[in-house]
Design brief:
Elements lengths: L24 H10 L5 H8 L3 H10 L21
């Protein structure tokens, strides 16, 4: 009971070409350029998607901006010893 398998004989895995259905990547890039300090939660609420969707899209676009909580410039008047 041998069945003939049709195919091209190639055993390599075909690449997955997935589309983001709800999220327009070009709009996300523009949003990140306009709001570089926005949290992923804020982006997710703006685009009406989940935070994991935003994270995966940013990873795909290779956008990895991390916030720094330290002051860039020190204002001596505000410092109290």
């Amino acid at each position: 009971m041998e069945e003939e398998v049709e195919g091209n004989g190639n055993l390599e895995r075909a690449p997955l070409n997935r589309k983001y259905r709800k999220l327009d990547l070009e709009k996300l890039v523009r949003y990140v350029e306009e709001h570089p300090d926005a949290y992923q939660r804020k982006m997710a609420s703006e685009f009406k998607v989940s935070t994991s969707c935003i994270g995966k899209a940013l990873r795909k676009l290779k956008i990895t901006v991390k916030k720094t909580r330290a002051y860039k410039e020190r204002d001596e008047e505000k410092c109290v010893d």
